[in-house]
Amino acid sequence: MLRLTFINENSFIPPLLAEINSSTMKLQSYSLHNYRNLPQVNNLTEEQIEAIEVVGNVLPFKTNNYVVNELINWNKIGNDPMFKLTFPQKGMLKEEHYDLMKSVLRSNASRDEIKNTANIIRNELNPHPAGQMEHNVPQINGEKIIGMQHKYRETVLFFPSQGQTCHAYCTFCFRWPQFVGMDELKFATKEALQLRDYVKENKEVTDILFTGGDPMIMKAKIFGTYIIPLLEDKIPNLQTIRIGTKALSYWPYKFISDDDSDELLSILEMAVNKGINVSVMAHFSHPVELETEAVKIAIKKLRAVGVQIRTQSPLLKHINDSPETWSDMWRKQVNLNCIPYYMFLPRDTGAQQYFAVSLEESWNIFRAAYQKVSGVCRTVRGPIMSCTPGKIQVLGVNDVGNEKVFTLRMLQGRNPDWVGRPFFAKYNENTIWIDDLKPAFGDKKFFFESSAPEATESEPGNGTIVL
User: Fold this and answer.
1) pTM above 0.90, yes or no
2) Which of 18, 158, 310, 404 is most buried by its number of CB atoms within 10 A?
3) Do 67 and 193 lie in a common domain?
4) With contact defined as beta carbons under 8 Å apart, do 432 and 442 qualify?
5) How many whole angstroms separate alpha carbon 50 and alpha carbon 52?
6) Is 56 helix (H, G, I), strand (E, B) or coil?
7) Which domain, by its residues, includes 98?
8) Number of domains the chain is built from
9) Is the dihedral of CA 68, 74, 78, 82 positive or negative?
10) What is the pLDDT of residues 416-437, one digit of tens each?
11) Domain boundary among 122, 141, 170
12) Alpha-carbon Rg of the chain, whole angstroms?
């Protein structure tokens, strides 16, 4: 039994609810070089092994002992959602890309030849969607701050360099280039003081979102070097610190029994006590991720120090593309004192063609799931495309006059004046992304297409927001 933990003299963590098997507490990672050491690999067919090898040389692959032992049902491996969420599958590459990499691997090519072939394929997979490299990089004193994005007025995204990996990789991840050695496509910075200065200078910023990779892969001491300067300066406009993480799903021991768990919780509690709203933006893609004792304990420990937990995931074919899965997941989240936040659609990058569900089917799944839950679960919004102009919500399919249309809403936008605006697009039953849509009623452009994304809004002082 783990010991009771006092974060400080005024804060008490309740007794743990169950023993955690000490053999599962030490993180063991698995990737292409050692996954065959897993005894469960004996359950896989030759075709599944081949897919892991071929796809895993193009898209990132990493899992760990918690995912393998507690989340994957190896007796139903052909249909197991967590297996498909973490192990490469053949359909994740287009047939021509799969065959190309397969032939290179079979030819006993050198490591450089394999890497070059992989990069050719990767560059055809839209490695950075939504204009991230070009349009979202902020400046201070006329210098671009590499490792930050500022797409929406109130929120700055920060990519700590030590957080550019994860406890395990999701096969749908839209930031996959960060994990495959495409260094020029990484977002990272060690400049914690630059972050502080930028937020101080740009007083419209209320939220910082630490993202990656996964910032919870960092040691607490390193994480503190980013958080503590923000707290010491008492920046009046800073109200919320968000942490985008999959750690609750893939390694809940980060908050329970890792050697820096107590220190991490103390840092988060320090921020809460300074009046900051600390929100863990937790990625849960399937109800099974909410069912282990470890995740329940981790959630309790975060909640005990005043951290809010909001939940989000893409809607993914093969993983969670049914109303029952989502309603079950939302209900479990609320019962654990988490707040359902977003249902996203998989971005136009990587293995989108494997995971994507049409806009109409996505809306039907969301609506049916929404109908199955009570109002306390209906904080969730979706389905949402996070794309170049902003976050676009699919509100439904309607007949307006004599035309069948998609009704959409700009939930968040590069230009704050766009936020909340409804608009219409021509109906297309096969559409999976905004780029495939055309304006309804004879309009030549959507309202957000008339503004160049390169446009900037300058604020007082030296900071510049790149909209």
Assistant:
1) no
2) 158
3) no
4) no
5) 5
6) helix
7) 28-122
8) 2
9) negative
10) 999 999 999 999 999 999 989 9
11) 122
12) 22
